[in-house]
Every structure is written in structure tokens, then in C-alpha cells.
């Protein structure tokens, strides 16, 4: 393969269905991309909005909406080609637009569908990565700082790992790192970057850290359900073909997730004598994350083992180690992305290096030369060295992703801090959504009037031209 992915030149403008186009693959790829998009909008938007205190519901959901829109814009204007274009550095591609008709309508570098489909598919993966980072800083990050963080992190962090791991020109891709659908690029990256950003942003108010109950558990569960079912496209779309391997990836995803959820709930019952809905959601997420780097390259029994591990090891790190570690408690990680994404993603990467089966790797990649799990290397004595090498590559990938994200996220946060504060003021954090956006999630008193301690009186509807409700009027209404 040449160093550069060639610019398209073989498509006639009037060829809507060229010979290389597989309509089934294209239809599935567009469907899978939309399923992944639904994980963010409305999945994580609802999960975050329902999983935080009422006063942060709007802000948390809005962070998701903004990140999704901003990433898609940046992706087509420069991000995609930096992640999947010609080589600038061994870990980074050359910036270029992905808007030209000749480029978008030509065949993608992988798959029997056009670049337009690939650009869309990869954009929703990039978007959900930023949205997962938001989970670590909910309840206190200055929204204007978040607006700056999203395009900067996409450009100077996500593109590094995406190019290195997924692009045929990337150095980890060439070494044979197995990351089926984003255990490294998405989950390890977002977990480490989120935790690093949480360190620089600072903690929530003390009373919010001590007690931060969901404002709507049913909505949170609905968002979690969207996340789980959307993962069918997340892992099922990454063979870039409608294949038996795609079917296996989907089934393994749900097997591992169900096992992980049951394991987490079981541990909650054993140690806390109560089954927690929030715990079930955490177990679901760790299962989804853990199976992601391995989805289509492991057997069903391995998916169950991975589910047992993802439902127990992150449980231990979150419920035991974190609670007894003063160092870990110094960082306020609102949605525990360190445990649910960084640790679960690393765990999945290592287990992939143990359980990946050579013939399944061949189904996925077409070449099993460097792709063999360590356990299968022990079974085939002639390939023990290849199995050991695979584990080494998987661990090297973890080290690289952690290093890149700690360094790049820290630099980005420090630069943003020179322009705007990373953290809202304590006074604004007391109020929440109303201070940040002048809006509230639920108005269930005074016919929709704002709470009396609001700094932002209700706005006038120009169609009705009613007067603004003042604090004094609100108090009179309340007394009446």
C-alpha cells in the first residue's frame, strides 16, 4: 500500500450506482451510522439530562447537542481527512476538506460504498467520543469553555488516535493492533480525556459531590436503552460489509452486555443488599465498552467471560478502590467515565489480545498474520511468539492512547483557561441551568414562572407581549 490514500478519480458524475457499489453494504452502513448517532441524540442527551440533579438537566443535555453538531461540522471540514487521509506524521493525517463531490462519491478506502457513507459513519463515532468526555465534567464546566474544548480536542487528540489505530497508514494499524470498533479510539480516549479534563476544571460544589441524585430515573433508563440498542450499529457496522462477522459482532455485543449487567447487579445485591438501577446502567455500559475492541474476533464463550470481567473489575475499581483512594477522590468525575470507559476499554483491549481467534480475525481483516490471541498462540505452539507479540501491541496501544490524551487534554484545558474560566462560579453553580442558559428543565410551579431565586427573569413572548415576571411578583404569587 502506498503512503497516501489516493484522491478519487474514477467516478463519472452521472454514475449513481457504479459497478463497485454494493447496495446492501451501503444501506447497512448508513443504518449503522444512524443507530450510533441515536446513541448520542437522543440517547446520551436523555441519559445525562435525567441522570443529573434537576438544576443541571438542561445544561447536561445541551452539552451533548452542541458537541454533536460541532463535531459533525469540524469533521467534514478538516477532521475526517486528518483521521483517514494522507500521512502527515506516523500518527496524524493531513488536514483537508471532505466536501468535494469527486471525493464523496468515489469508493471508500474500505468497503463497497462511497466516501460520503464512510464520512458520515465515522463522524458519529467522533461525536460520541466528545459526548462521553462531557460526562466527566457535568455540573460545573463553563459552557463557553466547552464550546472551545470540543473542536480543539477533536483536532488535536481524537484525530491522533483515530489515524494511528484505524487508518491503514497509522503506525498502530500497521503493527496489528486489534480495535474492532473503538475500545481504544473512543472509550479509552474519552475515559482518560474526561478524567484529565475533570482534574483541570475542578470539582462540583461540595454538596453536589456528596449528593447528586438523578432527577428522572425513568428518562435515564430510556437513554441507557437507546445506548444499548444503538450499539448494534456501533459494533455491527465496523466490518464495513454485511457479513457473518457483522452478525457475530452484534450477538457478542449483547451477550457480553447482558452478562456484565447481571454481574454488576449481583455484586450490588451481595455487598449492599439492594439492586440498584444506576448500578445496572453502569454494568451495562462497562459491558458494551469491554466487548467493543473484540466484538467480531472472539467466540461467544469469550464474550461471556469478558462480560463477567467487565461487570466485576470496574465494579471493584469504582465501588472499592475509588472510595478508599484519596488520590482518585481528588478528581470529581461526575459520570465515572474513568471506570466505565477508560478501565473497561483497557480491559477489553487486553482481553482481545487473549481471546481473539485467528480465523475470526481473518474474516474481519482478511489477514491473520499478526492477529492471534495469546491463548490461541499457546494452543498452536508454532505461534506462541505471535500471541505474545499481540498482547504487547495491545498494551502499547493503551500506553499510547493514555499518553496522548493526558498530554493533549491538559494543554487544551490550559490554553482555554487563558481565554475563559473552565469552571462556572460557585454562585452560578448554586443555580445551575438558569444561570448558564436562562432556562430550566421543569417548571412545575407558578404556571411556569421561574423560581424566586433566579437571576434571570422570564423572557417576553413577542407574540403575546406579556410583561416579564419579576422576583417581587413571583413572591406575591407564591404567598397568595
TrEMBL record:
Keyword entries, A-Z: Ammonia transport, Membrane, Transmembrane, Transmembrane helix, Transport
Query: Which residue intervals define the domain Ammonium transporter AmtB-like in the entry?
Result: 27-442
Coiled-coil stretches noted in the UniProt entry, renumbered to this chain: none
Its chief place of residence is membrane
Q: Which GO terms describe its molecular function?
A: ammonium channel activity
NCBIfam families found in the cross-reference section: amt
| Protein family membership | Belongs to the ammonia transporter channel (TC 1.A.11.2) family.
What is the protein's name according to its record? Answer: Ammonium transporter
Amino acid at each position: 500500500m502506498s503512503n497516501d490514500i489516493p484522491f478519487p478519480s474514477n467516478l463519472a458524475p452521472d454514475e449513481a450506482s457504479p459497478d463497485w457499489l454494493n447496495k446492501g453494504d451501503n444501506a447497512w452502513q448508513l443504518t449503522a451510522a444512524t443507530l450510533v448517532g441515536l446513541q448520542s441524540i437522543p440517547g446520551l442527551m436523555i441519559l445525562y439530562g435525567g441522570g443529573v440533579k434537576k438544576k443541571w438537566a438542561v445544561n447536561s443535555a445541551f452539552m451533548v447537542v452542541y458537541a454533536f453538531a460541532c463535531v459533525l461540522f469540524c469533521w467534514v471540514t478538516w477532521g475526517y481527512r486528518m483521521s483517514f487521509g494522507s500521512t502527515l506524521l506516523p500518527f496524524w493525517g493531513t488536514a483537508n476538506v471532505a466536501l468535494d463531490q469527486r471525493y464523496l462519491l468515489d469508493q471508500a478506502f474500505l468497503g463497497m460504498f462511497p466516501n460520503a457513507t464512510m464520512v458520515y459513519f465515522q463522524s458519529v463515532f467522533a461525536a460520541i467520543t466528545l459526548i462521553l468526555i462531557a460526562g466527566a465534567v457535568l455540573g460545573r464546566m463553563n459552557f463557553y469553555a466547552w464550546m472551545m474544548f470540543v473542536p480543539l480536542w477533536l483536532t488535536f487528540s481524537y484525530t491522533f488516535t483515530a489515524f494511528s489505530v484505524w487508518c491503514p497508514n497509522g503506525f498502530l494499524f500497521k503493527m496489528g493492533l486489534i480495535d474492532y470498533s473503538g475500545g481504544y479510539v473512543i472509550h479509552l480516549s474519552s475515559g482518560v480525556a474526561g478524567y484529565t479534563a475533570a482534574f483541570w476544571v475542578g470539582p462540583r460544589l461540595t454538596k453536589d459531590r456528596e449528593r447528586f441524585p438523578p432527577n428522572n430515573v425513568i428518562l435515564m433508563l430510556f437513554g441507557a436503552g437507546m445506548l444499548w440498542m444503538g450499539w448494534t450499529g456501533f459494533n455491527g457496522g465496523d466490518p464495513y460489509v454485511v457479513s457473518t462477522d457483522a452478525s457475530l459482532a452484534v450477538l457478542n455485543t449483547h451477550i457480553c452486555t447482558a452478562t456484565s449487567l447481571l454481574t454488576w447487579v449481583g455484586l450490588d445485591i451481595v455487598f449492599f443488599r439492594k439492586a440498584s438501577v444506576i448500578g445496572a446502567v453502569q454494568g451495562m455500559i462497562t459491558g458494551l465498552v469491554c466487548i467493543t475492541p473484540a466484538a467480531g474476533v472472539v467466540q461467544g464463550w469469550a464474550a461471556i467471560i469478558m462480560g463477567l470481567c467487565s461487570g466485576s473489575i470496574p465494579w471493584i475499581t469504582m465501588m472499592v478502590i475509588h472510595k478508599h483512594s484519596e488520590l482518585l477522590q481528588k478528581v470529581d468525575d461526575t459520570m465515572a467515565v474513568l471506570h466505565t470507559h477508560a478501565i473497561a476499554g483497557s480491559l477489553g483491549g487486553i482481553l482481545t489480545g487473549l481471546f481473539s481467534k485467528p480465523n475470526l480475525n481473518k474474516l474481519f481483516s482478511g489477514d491473520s498474520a499478526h492477529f492471534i490471541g495469546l491463548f490461541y498462540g499457546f494452543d498452536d505452539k508454532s505461534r506462541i511468539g505471535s500471541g505474545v507479540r499481540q498482547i504487547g501491541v495491545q498494551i502499547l496501544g493503551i500506553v499510547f492512547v493514555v499518553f496522548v490524551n493526558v498530554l493533549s487534554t491538559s494543554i487544551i484545558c490550559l490554553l482555554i483557561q487563558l481565554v475563559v474560566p473552565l469552571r462556572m462560579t460557585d454562585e452560578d453553580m448554586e443555580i445551575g441551568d438558569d444561570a448558564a442558559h436562562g432556562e430550566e428543565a421543569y417548571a412545575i410551579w407558578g404556571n411556569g414562572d421561574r423560581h424566586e431565586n433566579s437571576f434571570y427573569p422570564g423572557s417576553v413572548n413577542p407574540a403575546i407581549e406579556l410583561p416579564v415576571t419579576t422576583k417581587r411578583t413571583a413572591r406575591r404569587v407564591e404567598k397568595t
